[in-house]
Amino acid sequence: MKAESRRDKRVFITGASSGIGAALARRYAEEGAVLALVGRSSDRLNALQASLPGAERHWVYALDVMDTAALWAAAAEFMAANNGIDIVIANAGISHGTLTRHAEDLPVFERIVATNLVATVATFAPFVERMEQQAAQGDHGCRLVGIGSAAGIRGLPGASAYSASKAAVITYCESLRVELRRSGVRVVTIVPGYIDTPMTQSNKYRMPFLMSAEKFAAQTVNAIDAGVSYRVIPWQMGVVAKLLRLLPNALYDLAFARAPRKARTTAHPRAKPPAQNAGSGTAQKPE
Ligand SMILES: NC(=O)c1ccc[n+]([C@@H]2O[C@H](COP(=O)([O-])OP(=O)(O)OC[C@H]3O[C@@H](n4cnc5c(N)ncnc54)[C@H](OP(=O)(O)O)[C@@H]3O)[C@@H](O)[C@H]2O)c1
To answer: Is residue 44 a contact partner of residue 92, using CB atoms and an 8 Å limit?
Structure first.
């Protein structure tokens, strides 16, 4: 599809203040889209907005994607001001290593699942009804876009929360895609391999097929336009993902037992039990 057909698209992007989200925002802005830029850092969102073509047309929403009320308010304002919506990209996400033996990792696990999975659902929710109405009136361009990860294809050691959250995003998007199939609203699942962003820049290990955020954004925008159901980007990681799926557990376990691990947010030398005096049964917060 040519860039021309993307002019004046209304695009709502979470996690726009950094990495992939910022690159997608730039790509869409260059093609004439009107953007809602969502993230927690108002400084980075404002700086991005000011740097984009058509800066004054774009909206900044400094909010936490776990704040459902704030998401609904932002969605309502953006749709009212722009007379609808075309594309919603639930891109905000976090990644930390987690180990089950460490009680203090449980809140980190919860935060990763809440940000990556639950907030994806919360991001889509305010738009579904409006998109269904637009589709019923012949609009074939409505897209809900989930961002999975190659780490969600098989469980990676040391990244149980992240792998589980991204596997869940992929499966959730598939459920939603089939639910909405008859409405005409398309659900697109994008599965990034290694993309060069602040999320991966701290990784101390080799990252095969590492791709720039700009190149990733260009390919993602094309996939969204085409309304594909599922795409791994870059394609080489797609081949690896297919092979990984076919690999029997015994071989997978052998190959990945010594795989490099993502750093934990709190590196404690020993597992600690949950606090005894709280009486709530909840784990200690990370220090
Ligand atoms: N980079 C990769 O290789 C890779 C691979 C597979 C999947 N992904 C996925 O791609 C997405 C973008 O990642 P990235 O690489 O661009 O990482 P990044 O540079 O760290 O950006 C993450 C973005 O998410 C936002 N965010 C995080 N928590 C948030 C919250 N609670 N509320 C609102 N915004 C929040 C951050 O904004 P604020 O800090 O301003 O809130 C930031 O804009 C993530 O879902 C990630 O899991 C990335």
So the answer is: no
Asked if residue 19 has its Cβ within 6 Å of ligand 1, the reply is yes
0.90 surpassed by pTM? yes
Contact 35, 52 (CB under 8 A): yes
The conformational region for residue 279 under phi > 0 = left, psi -120 to 50 = alpha, else beta, is left
| Residue among 94, 120, 206 whose CB has most ligand 1 atoms within 8 A, to mutate | 94
Each residue's pLDDT tens digit, 146-162: 999 999 999 999 999 99
3-state helix, strand, coil in the chain (%, to 5): 50, 15, 35
Domains, the chain: 3-256 (3.40.50.720)
Q: Which of 212, 222, 11, 31 is nearest to 123 (CA)?
A: 11
pLDDT tens across 77-117, in order? 999 999 999 999 999 999 999 999 999 999 999 999 999 99
Find the 93 Cα to ligand 1 centroid distance in Å. Answer: 4
